[in-house]
TrEMBL record:
InterPro entries: Alba-like_dom_sf (IPR036882), DNA/RNA-bd_Alba-like (IPR002775), UCP030333_Alba (IPR014560). Pfam families: Alba. This is DNA/RNA-binding protein Alba-like domain-containing protein. It comes from the Eukaryota. Residues 19-77 form the DNA/RNA-binding protein Alba-like domain.
Length: 128
């Protein structure tokens, strides 16, 4: 098995995680991911944010927004390099990867209730 095939197999297995958010820096705005993370946290006790290459800064920013607003606690951060086949160049390109695991804070439920109540009343939460 080549390194590229191994990366594809590993990626396929990881895509099956229901609490994983794979972040791209080109597809969606930052707060789309922040709000998606909050929705995932309503269903799971922890979530995993994952990104490759240039999207790494976006993942770190999302994690910091959630932490600074009291929604989550940081559980773990891991970095690695994976080989991906570049179809245009016909060779394996190595990309940096980050995975940040966040768990619900003790204040998560009360913060979400406050946020939802403010939204229902037509107010915008200044911390978001």
């Amino acid at each position: 098995m080549t390194m590229a095939q191994g990366a594809v197999k590993q990626t396929n297995n990881e895509n099956q995680k229901l609490n994983r958010i794979q972040v791209s820096n080109t597809k969606k705005p930052l707060f789309f991911y922040v709000n998606l993370a909050k929705k995932y946290l309503q269903q799971h006790n922890e979530i995993e944010l994952s990104a490759l290459g240039m999207a790494i800064t976006t993942v770190v920013t999302i994690a910091e927004i959630l932490k600074n607003n009291g929604f989550v606690n940081e559980k773990s951060i891991s970095t690695s390099t994976i080989g991906m086949k570049d179809e245009a160049k016909g060779r394996v390109v190595h990309k940096a990867r980050i995975e940040i695991v966040l768990e619900k804070s003790d204040k998560f439920e009360s913060l979400m209730a406050t946020t939802q109540q403010a939204t229902a009343n037509g107010k915008v939460d200044s911390k978001q």
